[in-house]
Design brief:
By secondary structure, the chain is of the alpha+beta class. Helix content is about 45%, strand content about 10%. It has 2 domains: about 1-215, no CATH class; about 240-335, no CATH class. The strands form 2 sheets. A 7-stranded mixed beta sheet has the order 6-7-5-4-3-2-9, with helices on both faces. Strands 1-8 form a two-stranded antiparallel sheet.
Length: about 350
């Protein structure tokens, strides 16, 4: 049985640092492709999981202005607590600002194991962590203590906010998108992460990691990617410079005035659907399914994609007409051409 402890109650603003650690899991590791779900302030600040919850990446993030050995030791406590818990985690990650380079055997590294920390600093780290675990200054070696230390991965934050978004977007033409767009997306993800902390789960128990989903403190990679691609594609949804190539098939046979009217109607419909408070939920549902279809079959025609889309979702929003959806599909196809 696993008990949730030390969860943050009514925390209305997640720190940039915790959001960076979330994005680090999703886009900056060699195994990021395996991570599909991120839980927020449940097992730890953030914890990544595969779909089956058979593999968990546990992250404690600490954005201290100064990190002497004693603070590092203190910061490792929740990771140790999880190491000796009833749940097995694949990796234990301490996400921190850059350490004093004198602490490190190889100061050129920003991701490293405990072995990269000098002996002098190790003594201070272990002393404080033992005090935290034991609840006293006896110096007793806790169970599996050295085992745990050998498993910890230290990850230093050495990148700008926008870089974390760029790394998960993998768009080729990154320079064509203003820096402030990436920063706004980061803030949006940070706010979504903060909103997940508004529930109370202290002392709740679970027997299996997958049971954490019932607390609704998670966000999926699909949701992040949908938001990301929608925002990046959305730059052109409202001011697309020209006509998406694949939409020309819809315009064939129309005169110039009819083309202008249809393009204006499609743009207006997308704007209305996007900002409609009552229909926005459906808009995002359609967007998510559309992106999924296009990722699976990027070479399909917009008409084939439209058929696939309408076979799995009943589009009720009046603004998302057939022509508007075909236009939207064309825009997303255009956006995805720049991805990967």
């Amino acid at each position: 049985m696993y008990t949730f402890k030390n969860t943050e109650i009514n925390n209305k603003k997640a720190s940039d640092f915790e959001t960076k650690s979330l994005l680090y899991l999703l886009g900056m590791r060699s195994d990021s492709g395996e991570i599909e779900i991120i839980t927020v302030d449940c097992f730890n600040d953030v914890t990544g999981s595969n779909t089956e919850f058979s593999k968990l990446w546990d992250v404690q993030s600490k954005n201290h202005s100064s990190l002497p050995p004693s603070k590092i030791g203190e910061s490792l406590y929740t990771l140790y607590d999880n190491y000796v818990s009833s749940i097995s985690f694949y990796e234990y990650i301490l996400f921190i600002p850059k350490l004093n380079r004198d602490y490190l055997v190889d100061p050129s590294l920003n991701v490293y194991s405990y072995e990269n920390i000098n002996e002098k600093q190790k003594k201070g780290i272990e002393k404080k962590l033992k005090e935290k675990i034991n609840g006293d200054k006896s110096g007793r070696v806790p169970p599996l203590f050295l085992d745990f230390m050998s498993k910890v991965c230290f990850v230093e934050d050495n990148k700008r906010v926008s870089t974390y978004i760029k790394m998960i977007s993998r768009f080729k033409n990154k320079k064509s998108i203003p820096e402030e767009i990436y920063e706004r997306i980061f803030v949006e993800i940070r706010n979504a992460q903060a909103a997940l902390k508004n529930s109370y789960i202290e002392n709740e128990k679970i027997s299996n990691p997958s049971e954490v989903l019932k607390f609704n403190r998670h966000i999926t990679k699909t949701e992040i990617n949908t938001l990301l691609i929608s925002r990046l594609v959305g730059i052109d949804v409202f001011s697309f410079p020209g006509i998406p190539v694949s939409f020309f098939d819809v315009l064939m046979g129309k005169d110039e005035e009819e083309r202008k009217d249809l393009l204006q109607e499609c743009n207006e419909n997308l704007s209305r659907a996007f900002f409609d408070k009552n229909g926005c939920r459906e808009f995002w549902k359609v967007t998510e399914i559309l992106i999924k279809i296009l990722k699976e079959k990027p070479d399909n025609s917009i008409f084939d994609v439209y058929a696939s889309l309408t076979s799995v979702v009943n589009v009720k929003t009046e603004y998302l007409t057939k022509e508007t959806l075909l236009y939207m599909i064309s825009l997303v196809k255009t956006g995805l051409v720049n991805a990967n």
